[in-house]
Design brief:
Layout lengths: L3 H5 L1 H4 L3 E3 L14 H10 L2 E8 L5 E3 L4 E2 H4 L1 E4 L5 H4 L14 H8 L5 E5 L5 H13 L5 E5 L2 H10 L5 E5 L10 H8 L4 H4 L3 E5 L6 H10 L2 E7 L2 H7 L5 E4 L29
Parallel strand pairs: 1-2, 1-11, 2-6, 6-7, 7-8, 8-9, 9-10, 10-11
Antiparallel strand pairs: 2-3, 4-5
Length: 273
């Protein structure tokens, strides 16, 4: 028997999900910008993006805490107002870090949306702002986070929103606390947050705790981040939803159903199954 929340995940299984939009940082479509998101919509791909708060409480779309990598400036987004943030250009382009509301207007319900709520010391405030803006959005979406507190907030305050636990091996990043990192890698907080899906580093699908939680939760599995067709093909047996960047997935067959005008006359970003 398929549960209603499992059925709601079907929309995300039908389309590949473009990581931070269909970006090309070298050609004027920087990650997590309106240009990259418009490009993903035009190609018919779902979208994954990251949200966080500015100093003055504006919800913006950006992955990193700071601007060093994308703007060459050693300053945190949380220490800038949105007006100050708008004076910075992303990766030598004409693009700026957008408001979440601006991104929602571009996507306009045409493709599925995966929203990652970034970890911060303003968890409840960020969750509230995200939930409030999504409540006014007419489209298919889900939220995910590495921070179990985000999932717990949505379970308590927005139970109807699909929520997913992000995790992986933390080979490069971690909290600095070995015990906490072990808990996050093995998703021990799932017993409190009860996610609708698990989004895991695709190379580590064979980890025992990943398979155990999938069996316990009977949930969808989301692969991050696929960066080649070879890796995509290798991940198919372990995952249901695929987040990709750095290439365009190939399609053997037409998407099983049209999802909007972006599909007209060409193949969309759908998965035939």
């Amino acid at each position: 028997m398929i549960r209603p929340r499992q059925q709601a995940m079907a929309d995300f299984k039908r389309q590949y999900i473009a990581h931070r939009g269909l970006f090309d940082n070298a050609r004027g479509y920087p990650e997590n910008t309106l240009a990259a998101f418009q490009r993903a919509v035009d190609a018919g791909y779902g979208i994954e993006l990251d949200v966080r708060l500015t100093k003055d409480g504006q919800l913006v779309v950006a992955h990193d805490d700071g601007l060093q990598r994308i703007c060459g400036e050693d300053v945190d987004i949380a220490d800038l107002t949105y007006a100050e943030l708008c004076t910075r250009r992303v990766l030598v382009s004409d693009q700026t870090v957008p408001l979440f509301t601006q991104v929602l207007a571009v996507i306009d319900g045409l493709v599925p949306l995966v929203v990652e709520v970034k970890q911060s010391n303003r968890t409840a405030e960020t969750c509230q702002a995200t939930a409030d803006q999504l409540a006014r959005y007419r489209g298919r979406y889900c939220v995910e986070s590495f921070d179990p507190r985000v999932l717990l907030w949505f379970r308590r305050h927005r139970r109807g929103v699909l929520r997913g636990q992000l995790s992986g091996g933390f080979q490069e990043d971690g909290t600095g606390n070995r015990l906490l990192d072990a808990c996050l890698i093995n998703m021990v907080f799932n017993k409190f947050t009860w996610p609708d899906f698990i989004a895991y580093e695709w190379q580590q699908a064979d980890r025992f705790t990943v398979r155990a939680w999938r069996a316990i939760l009977r949930c969808a599995m989301v692969a991050w981040t696929i960066r080649s067709q070879v890796d995509l093909d290798a991940a198919r047996g372990d995952f249901d939803v695929f987040i990709f960047d750095s290439f365009k997935p190939s399609h053997d067959r037409q998407c099983p159903r049209p999802l909007g005008p972006e599909c007209g006359g060409q193949r969309c970003g759908g998965i035939a199954f």
